[in-house]
Design goal:
The chain is α/β, with parallel strands linked by helices and 276 residues long. The chain is 34% helix and 20% strand. The strands form two sheets. Strands 1, 2, 3, 4, 5 and 6 form a six-stranded mixed beta sheet that branches. A four-stranded antiparallel beta sheet has the order 8-9-7-10, with helices on one face.
Length: 276
């Protein structure tokens, strides 16, 4: 998934117009139709779709970002629009803060997988402080687009892979909630089929319940979050890129506790858990 194919330069601006949610949605709808790839849908159709989605709950997810999105009949493909509002807009965000960075996603109803992948990509990119700082500091629409695409680069890895044989089992064990959510978004964004998760317990938490260890090991597990394991089959050719992308989230795993990556070469793989 090369996100640059969905984000035209004409659909980016560092001067997003609008003093309230309705005006911003109208501006984003106009940015969407600025893309040369838009056919079969009008500004009014897109604006209506985005507002209908907002009526279900704000897409202002906090940290000064919002990702309005919807599906519109007549769209030939998904299109992104990117805008920065210097003054900020009250968008009913979850944390109550004004929203400064908007990424709108609009596409056809019959492509739910691509919808999810683009949502995951946008959420992961805008969720990092470095990307938000670079985008807010952009001096031109071109620089804004480049900053977004730079941080979205891992999304292109799987689709550019020549060997699509899913011949490695990757397991990522992580404790921190934020890191877990970001890694889940990364797996979804990469389009890895059949990724599953499993919740576990730290050894200290289990032993602290045994009479002989009661009170002795509480310090090891009582306040720590439960570790969770994410598992997926991945091509060997993208392992290094996947590990690098995960370490961008967790930090250097050679010097970081609370997360680890395990990669195995299974003898037999039959069937699939892919559901999207």
């Amino acid at each position: 998934m090369d996100i640059s194919n969905y984000l035209a330069p004409e659909s980016c601006t560092i001067g997003l117009e609008g003093k309230n949610k309705g005006e911003v949605i109208s501006s984003l709808a106009r940015l969407i139709v600025n893309s040369p790839a838009v056919t079969g849908a009008s500004v009014e159709d897109i604006e209506r779709g985005l507002m209908d989605r907002e009526s279900m709950g704000s897409t202002g997810f906090g940290k000064g970002i919002a990702i309005p999105h919807c599906k519109v009949d007549g769209m030939a493909q998904f299109i992104l629009a990117l805008g920065v509002s210097g003054r900020g807009v009250d968008f009913d965000a979850m944390d109550g803060r004004s929203v400064h960075i908007f990424c709108a996603i609009v596409g056809p109803p019959e492509e739910p997988e691509m919808h999810l992948r683009l949502l995951a990509a946008a959420s992961r990119v805008l969720g990092t402080g470095n990307s938000r700082y670079e985008m807010l500091s952009s001096k031109s629409s071109y620089a804004l687009r480049e900053a977004f695409l730079y941080h979205a680069a891992p999304a292109t890895t799987l689709d550019s892979c020549k060997d699509r044989t899913f011949n490695r089992l990757m397991m990522v064990v992580v404790q921190e909630e934020d890191a877990y959510n970001d890694i889940i978004e990364l797996f979804l964004e990469m389009g890895l089929p059949g990724a599953i998760t499993h919740e576990g317990n730290l050894m200290g938490q289990i032993l602290s319940g045994a009479p002989v260890f009661a009170g002795f090991l509480d310090v090891l597990g009582s306040s720590r979050p439960e570790p969770r394991t994410i598992m997926a089959l991945v091509p060997a050719d993208i392992l290094d890129d996947m590990i690098s992308s995960i370490e961008e989230i967790t930090g250097d795993l050679d010097n970081h506790r609370g997360a680890c990556i395990i990669v195995l070469a299974p003898d037999i793989v039959r069937g699939s858990l892919e559901t999207i």
